[in-house]
Amino acid sequence: NAGVTQTPKFQVLKTGQSMTLQCAQDMNHNSMYWYRQDPGMGLRLIYYSASEGTTDKGEVPNGYNVSRLNKREFSLRLESAAPSQTSVYFCASSDRGSGSWDEQFFGPGTRLTVL
Amino acid sequence: RKEVEQDPGPFNVPEGATVAFNCTYSNSASQSFFWYRQDCRKEPKLLMSVYSSGNEDGRFTAQLNRASQYISLLIRDSKLSDSATYLCVVNDDQFYFGTGTSLTVIP
Predict the structure, then answer these.
(1) Choosing among A106, A110, A111, which should be mutated to test the B contact, i.e. which has the most B CBs within 10 A?
(2) What tens digit of pLDDT does each residue of A54-89 get?
(3) Distance CA A26, CA B94 (A)
């Protein structure tokens, strides 16, 4: 099993450009998540999908959109990138979500720089 | 106020030492609690869940105090390979991560 995979691993954008970060999991998990990690801020939840067909905002959703394409795939889109979106982005999955004791499995991350 | 607060450290300890990390959380209705470990430039990975009765996994002991809204992690007989950032995680309506505590074990 590959677990959680993310593409691309690195990306440099100019302000105003758009891009989509891809995430896929092969563990048949119901819940999927997008986080960003910034120095001194820890991981912050951008959006999550508790199950196929549903998406909800997390702590920092502004400037992002998501699509739960199917049970395996959850993509994150930046429509008009800003320097404040320079960060490391992690996708994660778990079998169940809020209130559960289920482990979250993380992808290797995407390092995004917006100039 | 942050949902989860941790002392960022850094903690620099010699091999063989015992070190303890603490974490506080703000929502008394939080339902599940974890410690994750994150190596430099890598993704977080689950270290252990934290149960009300306390739990131990080898050299690692985690404890939860719901009354004080406080979680702890104790590492005994520290190894060089324990050097990492330790993240406190609380799950209520969503997962909330602390900023992490940095540990370096020195030979």
Answers:
(1) A106
(2) 999 999 999 999 999 899 999 999 999 999 999 999
(3) 22
